[in-house]
Amino acid sequence: MSFGLRNIARPQVALAEMHRVLRPGGRVVICEFSKPPRALFRTGYGAYMRFVMPLVVRATSTDPEAYDYLAESIRDWPDQHTLSQWMRGVGFTRVAYRNLTAGVVALHRGHKPADEAILARTAQRTAPRRRPAAATPSKDPS
């Protein structure tokens, strides 16, 4: 998936669905905007998104509001580590990412285990936890 996960209302649910439909042994690759890891570049990129891009958009676009959304959605999107944790949390293994363009974009990848024992462990880890039902007092028929 490229530049789309960020636009989904519940991205963790979407990741879980990707994991569900992926064949055992399959791989998912997600290309998405991210946070540059170096502070100086992150600051410069943030300034570009806040000040330069709006000027360019106003001069060239017929729909500047779309670019306002773009800047907001990129700013609000989590960093590489967080997205990797989300992927692990829904059961993907061998999760890794590679920063592209100094971290402005990151390519994440993960695998759905083919081994049944690993699948069982990840299913246990990702299954919703249920609290035991409270004991209800029984009525004495006497």
The CATH architecture term of the largest domain is 3-Layer(aba) Sandwich
- SSE pattern, N- to C-terminal: HEHHHEEH
Specify the CATH homologous superfamily of the largest domain.
Answer: Vaccinia Virus protein VP39
Taking all residues together, what is the mean pLDDT? Answer: 89
Strand order within the widest beta sheet: 1-3-2
CATH fold title of the largest domain:
Rossmann fold
CATH C-level of the largest domain: Alpha Beta
- Assign the structural class, choosing from mainly alpha, mainly beta, alpha/beta, alpha+beta, or little secondary structure: alpha+beta
User: How many domain regions?
Assistant: 2
Q: How far apart, in Å, are the first and last alpha carbons? A: 65 Å
Task: Tell me the overall shape.
Answer: elongated
Radius of gyration: 21 Å
Count of helical stretches: 5
Percentage of residues in helical conformation: 40-55%
Q: What percent strand? A: 15-25%
Question: How many β-strand stretches?
Answer: 3
Largest sheet: 3 strands, antiparallel
